[in-house]
Amino acid sequence: MSGSHPILSGSAASIAAYQQAITQSTQAVVDWLQQPEMYRGKTVAELRDSIQLHFNAEGLGNQAAIARAVALFLKDSLAVHHPQCVAHLHCPSLVISQAAEVLINATNQSMDSWDQSPSATIIEITLVEWLRGLVGYQPGDAGVFTSGGTQSNLMGLMLARDAFFARRGHSVQQQGLIGDLSKIKVLCSAQAHFSVQKNMALMGLGYQSVIAVKTDNVARMDVHDLAEKLAQATARGEQVMAIVATAGTTDAGAIDPLAEIAAMAAEHQIWLHVDAAWGGALLLSEQYRHYLDGLELADSVTLDFHKQFFQTISCGAFLLKDARHYDLMRYQAAYLNSDFDEAQGVPNLVSKSLQTTRRFDALKLWMGLEALGKKQYAAIIDNGIRLAQDVAQFITGCLDLELVMKPQLASVLFRVRPGQVPAADVALLNQQTADALLASGSANVGVTEVNGITCLKLTLLNPTVCLEDVEVLLASVVQTARQLLDQR
Ligand SMILES: Cc1ncc(COP(=O)(O)O)c(C=O)c1O
To answer: Which atom of ligand 1 is nearest to the CA of 279?
Structure first.
């Protein structure tokens, strides 16, 4: 029978339907969590064959729809919490984050206006004020939660662009882009996240606007090359609207020299945005907080809590040093943030966000901070960084493995290279090894390219993983590579 009480409400029938649906779903999750496999190993073609939408005149009802989702989705999901699941900056989630999701989803608050999210708006503002303090900004509430690093980087770049034009007496918001746009540039390291390019293209300035600064031997921005690229741009008659520094590059976890870059940006009056999507986690670290010295000098900062803060997707934040810059994107919608409401001091977050309707993701971080406390949060962040150092040391002692770069945060870049493999085949062997491990369902190891070298990547965020787990993984990497060689 189709669900006769489809809407969540206070009626007894709806509450009973809600409890049944949630109990059935959580029980399915509990069963799934106890599966030993990381992935059941289905291929793209197999999933394509088995996954089909059932949308007929009569619905299946909640119970059957949940059962189908368990069969089609849950059972062939990737177990992100599995110790051998280490390919990406994709974290296992905190239990408290799951509980927060229940509250967020059931209440379905929307963060655009206070009348749609009264307590939630105040919680988010309070958290933004706290995060600003953590970064070292002046007290204030300029900042907002975002869908993640890409959107936060877009906000930083967009405000940098609009501030650049505003200094020249032009409002991009009102009049759009003008002039020779091919002369407007952004400088970031060659290892900066690709969202810089994508966002510049989205903003009408194209990939051509991004000048890549060289990196040093551990993937940090080379400040001498930054100075040189700045001078070259100026000599060509170009104008640099922003420098993007990265605190925690996606592969190497490299943190650019923030204070030196900030000094250069200040000297040339250029907006500095710091993408701390990964490294921002060190704000809570006991041992490594000083890696972020200079972050407070940035005009804007990206933080991302669905990486090493262990929150469920999505959960990010954008922080803006000088609140006045928010005027550059301000829009007043009579139905959301009217003059009348604002004159009475009614807060609204729509004027700080690119989104209108928006999830209350801030609650996850709020509850995570309260549940774990300073010591435990610091411990689970620092654990990954220390583990990466131990793993790197282990790899240097292995005959068939080669460390490609010294770890900085919680990632390890290495390659498998049994002695008999010709140099030209090493890249392909590494790629095939990672593919074979995923196809067998036993491990998910990243494949990337660093300084032209194809290598494997372990992103060791999971605080429950220990060196012995990684040794098991590395043994299967070597064994799989050897089997592939034998089959050739
Ligand atoms: C350094 C960095 N910045 C930004 C992003 C994009 O973040 P998101 O995937 O949350 O949009 C990533 C993603 O891995 C990243 O590593």
So the answer is: 1
